[in-house]
Write a structure and sequence with these properties.
By secondary structure, this protein is an all-alpha fold. Helix content is 81%, strand content 0%. It has 6 helices and no strands.
Length: 197
């Protein structure tokens, strides 16, 4: 079987980097919304687009050695779309508010579906399955609330995006930890040669 250790290390580094950027930018945006909200969310958008594209290349490299490579592909695509939505939604909200909210809702529903798929198909997740199920429910609730909201302003959209980026970044860091533990546990142990007597 083809070794995928290199690609899994790349995936873990991607999750850690993106998660750290999301958490830091989200926290800065929430702490100083008047001065830092737009700049911080721009950083989130750039990180989402670039890391999403990179994750797609990792998934492509994994396809020959990992049966669940398509989950990495789907996750990379979702992060890419998150970056695009972060850039586009504040600009399209005024002219096409219904379409913008519908796009956000669709992304949340798709991410919920991905969380369910990971919990079903990925082995040995343990407690992570409960977290994935919870995230799926939360995303569906957020999508419904966004649909029922009478009016969404650009500021509120960006502010809620900062909250979501912080939570999503934390989830990325937790996912990286689970992957790191799983890959370490699956590494073959080499027997140590006994010293000659």
């Amino acid at each position: 079987m083809v070794s995928v250790a290199k690609e899994m290390r790349q995936l873990t580094r991607t999750l850690v980097t993106r998660g750290a950027v999301y958490v830091a930018a989200g926290a800065i945006a929430l702490a100083w919304p008047e001065n830092a909200l737009v700049h911080a969310m721009t950083a989130v958008a750039i990180a989402g687009v670039l890391s999403g594209l990179y994750e797609l290349t990792i998934a492509y490299d994994l396809r020959g050695g990992a049966p669940l490579w398509w989950l990495v592909l789907a996750h990379g695509a979702m992060m890419l779309l998150f970056g695009i939505l972060t850039i586009a939604a504040p600009r399209t909200l005024i002219q096409w508010p219904g379409t913008t909210i519908a796009a956000v809702d669709l992304w949340l529903f798709l991410l919920s579906g991905l969380a369910v798929a990971v919990s079903v198909y990925a082995p040995s997740l343990g407690a992570a399955k409960a977290l994935l199920s919870l995230s799926a429910v939360v995303n569906v609730v957020l999508a419904l609330l966004a649909s029922l909201s009478p009016m969404v302003t650009i500021f509120s959209l960006l502010y809620l995006g900062a909250v979501y980026a912080t939570v999503l970044g934390t989830a990325e860091l937790v996912a990286a930890l689970f992957i790191l533990r799983a890959t370490r546990g699956s590494r073959p142990r080499h027997a140590h040669a006994e010293p000659a007597r």
